Protein backbone atom coordinates (compact mmCIF):
# COMPACT_ATOMS: atom_id res chain seq x y z
CA UNK A 1 0.00 0.00 0.00
CA UNK A 2 2.76 2.31 0.66
CA UNK A 3 3.79 2.03 -2.96
CA UNK A 4 0.29 2.91 -4.09
CA UNK A 5 0.26 5.88 -1.83
CA UNK A 6 3.55 6.95 -3.22
CA UNK A 7 2.24 6.65 -6.77
CA UNK A 8 -0.84 8.65 -5.95
CA UNK A 9 1.14 11.34 -4.23
CA UNK A 10 3.25 11.99 -7.27
CA UNK A 11 2.45 15.58 -8.33
CA UNK A 12 3.75 18.06 -10.86
CA UNK A 13 6.45 19.02 -8.38
CA UNK A 14 8.01 15.61 -8.51
CA UNK A 15 7.90 15.22 -12.33
CA UNK A 16 10.90 15.47 -14.58
CA UNK A 17 11.01 18.44 -17.02
CA UNK A 18 10.06 16.15 -19.88
CA UNK A 19 7.03 14.97 -18.03
CA UNK A 20 6.05 18.54 -17.16
CA UNK A 21 5.98 19.44 -20.89
CA UNK A 22 3.71 16.51 -21.60
CA UNK A 23 1.43 17.54 -18.80
CA UNK A 24 1.40 21.13 -20.17
CA UNK A 25 0.50 19.92 -23.67
CA UNK A 26 -2.35 17.86 -22.23
CA UNK A 27 -3.71 20.96 -20.53
CA UNK A 28 -3.60 23.07 -23.77
CA UNK A 29 -6.53 22.81 -26.04
CA UNK A 30 -5.99 20.89 -29.17
CA UNK A 31 -6.36 23.11 -32.29
CA UNK A 32 -8.58 21.51 -34.90
CA UNK A 33 -8.34 21.83 -38.69
CA UNK A 34 -11.16 24.41 -38.82
CA UNK A 35 -9.44 26.61 -36.27
CA UNK A 36 -6.14 26.28 -38.14
CA UNK A 37 -7.92 27.43 -41.33
CA UNK A 38 -9.35 30.44 -39.50
CA UNK A 39 -5.90 31.33 -38.17
CA UNK A 40 -4.44 31.04 -41.71
CA UNK A 41 -7.23 33.22 -43.09
CA UNK A 42 -6.62 35.79 -40.36
CA UNK A 43 -2.92 35.85 -41.25
CA UNK A 44 -3.78 36.23 -44.94
CA UNK A 45 -6.17 39.08 -44.17
CA UNK A 46 -3.52 40.74 -42.04
CA UNK A 47 -0.95 40.40 -44.84
CA UNK A 48 -3.47 41.75 -47.36
CA UNK A 49 -4.32 44.65 -45.04
CA UNK A 50 -0.63 45.50 -44.62
CA UNK A 51 -0.12 45.39 -48.41
CA UNK A 52 -3.12 47.66 -48.94
CA UNK A 53 -1.93 50.00 -46.22
CA UNK A 54 1.50 50.22 -47.84
CA UNK A 55 -0.11 50.84 -51.24
CA UNK A 56 -2.37 53.49 -49.70
CA UNK A 57 0.60 55.27 -48.13
CA UNK A 58 2.56 55.10 -51.39
CA UNK A 59 -0.36 56.53 -53.37
CA UNK A 60 -0.99 59.19 -50.75
CA UNK A 61 2.65 60.31 -50.92
CA UNK A 62 2.49 60.29 -54.71
CA UNK A 63 -0.71 62.37 -54.60
CA UNK A 64 0.84 64.88 -52.20
CA UNK A 65 3.91 65.26 -54.44
CA UNK A 66 1.72 65.71 -57.53
CA UNK A 67 -0.48 68.18 -55.70
CA UNK A 68 2.56 70.20 -54.61
CA UNK A 69 3.98 70.10 -58.15
CA UNK A 70 0.67 71.24 -59.60
CA UNK A 71 0.33 74.01 -57.03
CA UNK A 72 3.84 75.24 -57.86
CA UNK A 73 3.01 75.07 -61.59
CA UNK A 74 -0.22 77.03 -61.03
CA UNK A 75 1.60 79.73 -59.05
CA UNK A 76 4.39 79.95 -61.63
CA UNK A 77 1.96 80.28 -64.54
CA UNK A 78 -0.02 82.90 -62.61
CA UNK A 79 3.17 84.94 -62.07
CA UNK A 80 4.10 84.56 -65.76
CA UNK A 81 0.60 85.61 -66.81
CA UNK A 82 0.71 88.68 -64.56
CA UNK A 83 4.11 89.61 -65.97
CA UNK A 84 2.86 89.16 -69.53
CA UNK A 85 -0.12 91.39 -68.84
CA UNK A 86 2.04 93.95 -67.11
CA UNK A 87 4.43 94.22 -70.07
CA UNK A 88 2.15 93.15 -72.91
CA UNK A 89 2.54 96.36 -74.90
CA UNK A 90 6.32 96.54 -74.74
CA UNK A 91 6.94 95.36 -78.31
CA UNK A 92 4.31 97.73 -79.69
CA UNK A 93 5.82 100.63 -77.75
CA UNK A 94 9.30 99.80 -79.07
CA UNK A 95 7.90 100.17 -82.59
CA UNK A 96 6.37 103.55 -81.70
CA UNK A 97 9.62 105.06 -80.46
CA UNK A 98 11.01 105.68 -83.97
CA UNK A 99 7.75 107.50 -84.79
CA UNK A 100 8.35 109.77 -81.82
CA UNK A 101 11.95 110.31 -82.96
CA UNK A 102 10.70 111.39 -86.41
CA UNK A 103 8.24 113.84 -84.88
CA UNK A 104 11.04 115.35 -82.79
CA UNK A 105 13.30 115.67 -85.86
CA UNK A 106 10.51 117.39 -87.81
CA UNK A 107 9.80 119.80 -84.95
CA UNK A 108 13.47 120.81 -84.76
CA UNK A 109 13.13 122.18 -88.31
CA UNK A 110 10.02 124.29 -87.61
CA UNK A 111 11.97 127.55 -87.33
CA UNK A 112 14.48 126.95 -90.14
CA UNK A 113 12.53 125.11 -92.87
CA UNK A 114 8.72 124.70 -92.57
CA UNK A 115 8.67 122.49 -95.66
CA UNK A 116 10.86 119.92 -93.86
CA UNK A 117 8.36 119.92 -91.00
CA UNK A 118 5.56 119.05 -93.43
CA UNK A 119 7.65 116.32 -95.05
CA UNK A 120 8.63 114.97 -91.61
CA UNK A 121 5.02 114.87 -90.43
CA UNK A 122 3.92 113.08 -93.62
CA UNK A 123 6.72 110.53 -93.25
CA UNK A 124 5.85 109.99 -89.61
CA UNK A 125 2.16 109.59 -90.46
CA UNK A 126 2.96 106.85 -93.02
CA UNK A 127 5.27 105.15 -90.53
CA UNK A 128 2.59 105.18 -87.83
CA UNK A 129 -0.05 103.78 -90.20
CA UNK A 130 2.35 101.00 -91.20
CA UNK A 131 2.94 100.04 -87.56
CA UNK A 132 -0.81 100.03 -86.87
CA UNK A 133 -1.38 97.90 -89.97
CA UNK A 134 1.22 95.37 -88.75
CA UNK A 135 -0.80 95.07 -85.55
CA UNK A 136 -4.04 94.56 -87.47
CA UNK A 137 -5.42 98.01 -86.69
CA UNK A 138 -7.34 99.20 -89.74
CA UNK A 139 -9.42 102.30 -90.43
CA UNK A 140 -13.22 101.96 -90.67
CA UNK A 141 -14.48 103.11 -94.08
CA UNK A 142 -17.18 105.67 -93.33
CA UNK A 143 -17.34 108.34 -96.04
CA UNK A 144 -20.30 107.69 -98.36
CA UNK A 145 -21.32 104.51 -96.51
CA UNK A 146 -24.77 103.85 -95.01
CA UNK A 147 -24.82 104.80 -91.33
CA UNK A 148 -24.17 101.76 -89.10
CA UNK A 149 -24.51 102.40 -85.35
CA UNK A 150 -22.07 99.53 -84.65
CA UNK A 151 -19.32 101.26 -86.67
CA UNK A 152 -20.31 104.94 -86.63
CA UNK A 153 -21.32 107.48 -84.04
CA UNK A 154 -23.43 110.32 -85.45
CA UNK A 155 -22.40 113.71 -84.08
CA UNK A 156 -24.20 115.85 -86.62
CA UNK A 157 -27.14 115.54 -89.01
CA UNK A 158 -27.43 117.56 -92.21
CA UNK A 159 -30.45 117.82 -94.47
CA UNK A 160 -29.44 116.64 -97.93
CA UNK A 161 -31.91 115.95 -100.70
CA UNK A 162 -29.22 114.71 -103.10
CA UNK A 163 -28.27 111.73 -100.86
CA UNK A 164 -30.19 108.84 -99.40
CA UNK A 165 -31.17 109.24 -95.79
CA UNK A 166 -28.65 107.97 -93.20
CA UNK A 167 -25.63 108.21 -95.46
CA UNK A 168 -22.33 109.30 -93.94
CA UNK A 169 -21.60 112.71 -95.41
CA UNK A 170 -18.39 113.47 -93.58
CA UNK A 171 -15.98 111.62 -91.33
CA UNK A 172 -15.14 113.95 -88.44
CA UNK A 173 -12.86 111.51 -86.58
CA UNK A 174 -11.60 108.22 -88.02
CA UNK A 175 -12.74 104.99 -86.47
CA UNK A 176 -10.61 101.86 -86.25
CA UNK A 177 -10.92 98.09 -86.09
CA UNK A 178 -8.54 95.97 -84.06
CA UNK A 179 -8.65 92.60 -85.81
CA UNK A 180 -12.43 92.04 -86.05
CA UNK A 181 -13.46 94.25 -83.13
CA UNK A 182 -14.31 97.94 -83.22
CA UNK A 183 -11.51 99.73 -81.42
CA UNK A 184 -13.17 103.13 -81.81
CA UNK A 185 -16.28 104.01 -83.86
CA UNK A 186 -15.95 106.71 -86.50
CA UNK A 187 -17.47 110.06 -85.51
CA UNK A 188 -19.54 111.18 -88.48
CA UNK A 189 -22.02 113.62 -89.98
CA UNK A 190 -25.10 111.87 -91.40
CA UNK A 191 -27.57 112.92 -94.11
CA UNK A 192 -31.27 113.35 -93.47
CA UNK A 193 -34.15 114.04 -95.84
CA UNK A 194 -36.55 116.81 -94.96
UniProtKB/TrEMBL annotation:
Domain of life: Bacteria
UniProt entry keywords in alphabetical sequence: Chaperone, Cytoplasm, Stress response
Primary localization class, coarse: cytoplasm
InterPro entries xref list: GrpE (IPR000740), GrpE_CC (IPR013805), GrpE_head (IPR009012)
Disordered, as annotated region: 1-41
Comp. bias intervals (Basic and acidic residues): 1-24
Subcellular location as annotated: Cytoplasm
Function field: Participates actively in the response to hyperosmotic and heat shock by preventing the aggregation of stress-denatured proteins, in association with DnaK and GrpE. It is the nucleotide exchange factor for DnaK and may function as a thermosensor. Unfolded proteins bind initially to DnaJ; upon interaction with the DnaJ-bound protein, DnaK hydrolyzes its bound ATP, resulting in the formation of a stable complex. GrpE releases ADP from DnaK; ATP binding to DnaK triggers the release of the substrate protein, thus completing the reaction cycle.
Subunit structure: Homodimer.
Family: Belongs to the GrpE family.
Alphabetized HAMAP family for the sequence: GrpE
Protein name listed in UniProt: Protein GrpE
